[in-house]
Design goal:
The protein has 198 residues and is an alpha/beta fold. Strands 1, 2, 3, 4, 5, 6 and 7 form a seven-stranded mixed beta sheet that branches.
Length: 198
């Protein structure tokens, strides 16, 4: 039987919740009975500094926790220019799910039209207005769960397992926080389903 695996690169900047995305994916994968390896988060995790994390999920043993260039199945970015930065990691059949809301921390930040063109030339993309959906969910800080919801189709893990993971991981913050994050996940999930890019 052919081995099933999914290699995911998470990208964004400090303060966007990349660590929380990784934690939810890892929890859901383990609940599904899969093997998972996660790298340390690289880059500067302070607000505004580049952050990335590698996640490798498989139904068999995983020996390395780092992704190599050209082999990533899913590039999930909460910041659009960070998606461009990690394009070399994407496989020829890989998917890109990125927010369209820039965190402008450099003087020569390119126009979104240019970024979207670069990404669309390299892979199949889902562009998400995560800020608008997070606001709809009840908290602008839930953009990370919006993005996870949009990308969940490409992980091989059921949406309900992600929702269970969100419940567990945010349990100490109270039911209101749990509900907002699950709502954000659901809104992202519904947006991707309606986008016609799955």
């Amino acid at each position: 039987m052919k081995r099933k695996k999914t290699d995911i690169l998470l990208a964004g900047v400090g303060g966007q919740g990349i660590i929380s995305i990784a934690a939810v994916i890892a929890y859901a994968a383990l609940k599904k009975g899969l093997h998972i390896k996660q790298s340390e988060v690289h880059g500067m995790s302070q607000r505004g500094g580049a952050v990335q994390s590698h996640l490798r999920i498989s139904d068999d043993i995983i020996y390395s926790d780092l992704l190599s260039e050209g082999n990533t199945d899913l590039l999930l970015s909460v910041e659009p220019l960070e998606a461009v930065r990690y394009l070399p990691y994407l496989s020829s059949t890989g998917r890109i799910v990125t927010a369209v809301n820039p965190f402008v921390n450099i003087d020569d930040y390119p126009p979104m039209e240019i970024i979207e063109q670069q990404l669309a030339m390299r892979g199949r993309c889902v562009f998400v207005d995560a800020a608008a959906l997070a606001k709809q969910a009840g908290n602008p800080k839930t953009t990370n769960m919006v993005m996870l919801g949009a990308a969940s189709f490409f992980t091989g893990i059921e949406a309900e397992l992600f929702k269970d993971a969100i419940h567990e991981i945010f349990a100490e913050r109270g039911q209101q926080t749990i509900d907002m994050n699950i709502n954000a996940f659901q809104l992202g999930n519904e947006f991707a389903a309606a986008s016609g890019r799955l």
